[in-house]
Amino acid sequence: MSNTSTDFIEFGVPGDKILVPRIGLGTMNLSGSYGSVNEEESLAVLNHAIKKGCVFWDSADVYSLGQNETLVGKALKDNRDKVILCTKFGHEFMVPEIATSDHHKGIVGINGKPEYVARAAEASLKGLGVDRIDVYYQHRVDPNVPIEETVAAMAELVKQGKVRYLGLSECSAETLRRAYKVHPIAAVEYEYNLWSLDPETNGILEACRELGVTLVAYSPLGRGFLTGQIRSFDDLEETDIRRRHPRFQPGNFEKNLELVLFIEELAARKGCTASQIALAWVLAQEKNLIVIPGTRRIKYLDQNISTNTIRLSEDELKEIRNAIAQVEIVGTRYPKAMMEKLNL
Questions:
Q1: Are 303 and 214 in contact (CB under 8 A)?
Q2: What is the DSSP letter of 81?
Q3: CB 291 within 8 A of CB 5
Q4: Is 12 helix (H, G, I), strand (E, B) or coil?
Q5: Per-residue pLDDT, 146
Q6: Model-level pTM?
Q7: Is 294 within 8 Å of 56 (Cβ atoms)?
Q8: I need a labelling partner for 157 at 20 to 30 A (CA). Which of 205, 268, 276, 279 fits?
Q9: pLDDT in the model for residue 107
Q10: Torsions phi, psi of 17, nearest 5?
Q11: What confidence tens digit (pLDDT) does each residue in 86-112 have?
Q12: What is the pLDDT of residues 157-183, one digit of tens each?
């Protein structure tokens, strides 16, 4: 374990490395997945992120069924060279005539076929309004298509200059190793936070270290739960996708708050926010790691970025580990059907 929150890390593949800020931005919730949004406010967050140097951005074609990439594209129009642009494919979906805030409605299934890889990339390039994606991830592994075939198709995009780096998301350690033999993988996205320690137990963190792959920790704030800003299930809007997540369900929610109360108590002692404790903890677990918290507010974006100034002592790290071990988290991190698509 490395107790560090150094601002930048070297990111990329052998022979092609760039410096990347360790605190990036997840953009999913800027398009309505976590409730109502205002496009003007969302664009203000993106533009502020650029000014603050928070320029490792993560999107996906399926977020709000293409709307998120379109939104990100608007912010990139005059700023393309300032942002490290990441997006994902893999969830084949149909866009309804009337756009919906529910980014799961319209999903057909997981598709890793080579012809779909090419088609999805073209659609993302068009939606984002760019001619190259910096990091292109397979969002979920297709169990019916050998990973070698999917990654070979992704590698073609690199040869064509449409993609710079390749990534995988929520894959197994074995899949990562097989994929890397076809083409170097720059990053693996995985949920990693105080109540989701899967990368530590399923071998993916070990495989990333072995191969020199950056772990990109998404939902480092537990989809907002670990911030302490949500105090009950009723705080979630009717259109908020978290209403379907087991850990947010009434009964489970109240039990899981025990971890939040501990974080808040430690934050009060340290003179920072619960969010900053949660982010600083993830950053301290691994040197070659990036966090991509999402937010719809400039205030919270600034808080997240300033986590770089927070240092957790060895005693504090042990205290947090002990708390994690003692608190029983109730509920899986996704609904059952989505859990079945992980670690393949």
A1: no
A2: G
A3: no
A4: strand
A5: 98
A6: 0.94
A7: no
A8: 205
A9: 75
A10: -120, 145
A11: 999 999 987 654 444 454 556 788 999
A12: 999 999 999 999 999 999 999 999 999
Specify whether the CB–CB gap between 175 and 168 falls below 8 A.
yes
Q: What single string gives the DSSP state of each residue in 227-241?
A: GT---SGGGS-TT-G
Alpha-carbon span 157 to 302, nearest angstrom: 35
SS3 39: helix
Q: Can you give the pLDDT at residue 2?
A: 39
The third-level CATH classification (topology) of the domain covering 8-222+282-310 is TIM Barrel (3.20.20)
> Is 63 annotated in the active site?
yes
Catalytic residue among 34, 63, 136, 192: 63
- Cβ atoms 53, 42 nearer than 8 A: no
pLDDT at residue 95, rounded to an integer: 61
With a cut of 70, which residues of the chain have pLDDT below it? 1-6, 95-106
d(CA 331, CA 249): 8
With beta carbons less than 8 A apart as the criterion, state whether 81 and 53 touch.
Answer: no
Neighbours of 88 (CB within 10 A): 25
pLDDT of res. 171:
98
User: Where do the structural domains in the chain lie, given as residue ranges?
Assistant: 8-222+282-310
Length of the chain: 344
Q: Which amino acid is at 215?
A: L
Q: Which amino acid is at 140?
A: R
Q: Where are the alpha helices (DSSP H) in 53-113?
A: 67-76
What is the rounded distance in angstroms from the CA atom of residue 70 to the CA atom of residue 148?
30
CA distances from 206 to 16, 212, 219, 284, 288 (A): 22, 10, 20, 16, 12
Helices then strands (H, E): number in the chain?
Answer: 12, 12
DSSP SS3 for 51 = helix
CA Rg value for the chain: 19
